[in-house]
Amino acid sequence: MYKIAVIGDRESVYGFSSIGMEIYPVYSEDEGREKLKSLAGQDYAVIFITEALAEKTQDIIDKYTKETAPAIILIPGVTGNTGQGMSSVLKSIERAVGSALLD
User: Fold this and answer.
1) Mean pLDDT per segment of 10 residues, for the chain of length 103 residues?
2) Which fold has domain 3-97?
3) Residue ranges per domain, the chain?
């Protein structure tokens, strides 16, 4: 059975455990990179990652953008929304339908 993970700083991911998601708080860029690689190689269908951590691990995320699983979805952290998550969703929609829907 596939699982859902949330990775990022502790303050941003802690609440997701209350809705049954597996949380993985990380405390450094290196720890975040290693945890993302590890989770991507396991039975996770979806990995939510904070935008701040995603900025530091974009090369790893790029390796999985063309894969069916895991879907790596950017979420805002407690430090705020950078817009990177919405941009990522729009690019995915454009790739799926062949044109930009929300210009």
Assistant:
1) 91 92 96 95 92 92 84 84 63 57 55
2) Rossmann fold (3.40.50)
3) 3-97
